[in-house]
Amino acid sequence: MVFFMHYVYIIKSKVDGSFYKGYSTDPVLRLHFHNEGRSPYTSNKKPWELLAVLCFSSKTDALQKDKKIKKYNLKSL
User: Fold this and answer.
1) How many structural domains does the chain have?
2) Is residue 77 in a domain?
3) Single pTM value for the model
């Protein structure tokens, strides 16, 4: 049985200081994709730096946390 961890990550644009929060099973690879411009939503604000990673054993738990984080401004976290 293959066991995957699930992650919620927060990245910050080095261009304008804006934040992006997302879910991934590989946040380092996902950051690479953001910095290559493969994500349309973040492509115009690259480069990005990884600020935080939260780890979950359950995809459901990770997606619930992702949804909750996206509701709030980063300053309130």
Assistant:
1) 1
2) no
3) 0.87
